[in-house]
């Protein structure tokens, strides 16, 4: 089964890059440009993982994460925040909203996939463990 990843990101360049990196490694990707669309898609698609930009227009990623965590059907779905904030306390705040971890912008194409897959159950990753 192909793992589906939902990307909630308003920045077109980042959306494109993240989608490219995931699809190139065999994941199915759905994208949303804001939190409202993202919540709708998360509830209907029940993806295997959600990548959530924190800086979103209208409804920021903290609010989106809280809303996603209201749906028991998403309890087991990892939410990984994507944040450009490098402020002290940001990580704690991200985790307090129900995110499982975070990836810092700018996205590093060399490490991005490993960071994402560290939040997926081993049997749902496409690269697996070669050791
Ligand atoms: Mn953004």
Task: Record keyword descriptors for this entry.
131 residues; Rossmann fold; five-stranded parallel sheet; globular; binds manganese (II) ion
Short summary:
The protein is of the alpha/beta class. It is 34% helix and 18% strand. Manganese (II) ion (MN) binds at residues 10-11, 53, 55-56.
Written overview of the protein:
The model has no long low-confidence stretch (mean pLDDT 92). The protein is built from 5 helices and 5 strands; from the N terminus they run E-H-E-H-E-H-E-H-E-H. It starts with a strand and ends in a 14-residue tail after the last helix. The protein has a 5-stranded parallel β-sheet, with helices on both faces. Helix 2 (35-45) packs parallel to helix 3 (61-68). The chain has a single domain (4-122), classed as Response regulator (Rossmann fold, 3-Layer(aba) Sandwich), CATH 3.40.50. Helix 3 links the parallel strand 3 and strand 4. The longest helix has 13 residues, at 12-24. With 131 residues, it is α/β, with parallel strands linked by helices. The chain binds manganese (II) ion. The site of manganese (II) ion (MN) has 5 residues, from loops.
Class in CATH? Answer: Alpha Beta
Termini gap: 22 Å
Give the count of structural domains: 1
Oligomer: single chain
Q: Please give the CATH architecture.
A: 3-Layer(aba) Sandwich
**Count of discrete alpha- or pi-helical segments spanning 4 or more residues:** 5
Outline: globular
The unique ligands bound to this protein are: manganese (II) ion
Low-confidence stretches: none
Q: What's the CATH superfamily, by name?
A: Response regulator
**Gyration radius, rounded:** 14 Å
Q: What is the fold named in CATH at topology level?
A: Rossmann fold
Strand content: 15-25%
The computed structural class is alpha/beta
Main sheet: which strands, in order across?
Answer: 2-1-3-4-5
Q: In percent, how helical is the residue content? A: 25-40%
Mean pLDDT, to the nearest integer, reads: 92
Largest sheet: 5 strands, parallel
The number of E-state strands comes to 5
List the secondary-structure elements in sequence, H or E. Answer: EHEHEHEHEH
């Amino acid at each position: 089964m192909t793992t589906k990843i939902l990307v909630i990101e308003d920045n077109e360049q980042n959306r494109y890059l993240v989608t490219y990196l995931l699809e190139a490694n065999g994941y199915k990707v759905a994208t949303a440009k804001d939190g409202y669309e993202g919540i709708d898609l998360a509830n209907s698609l029940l993806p295997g993982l959600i990548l959530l930009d924190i800086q979103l227009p209208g409804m920021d990623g903290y609010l989106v994460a809280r809303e996603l965590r209201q749906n028991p059907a998403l309890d087991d779905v990892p939410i990984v925040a994507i944040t450009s904030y490098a402020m002290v306390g940001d990580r704690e705040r991200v985790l307090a909203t129900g995110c499982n971890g975070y990836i810092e912008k700018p996205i590093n194409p060399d490490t991005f996939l490993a960071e994402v897959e560290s939040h997926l159950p081993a049997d749902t990753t496409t690269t697996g463990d070669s050791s």
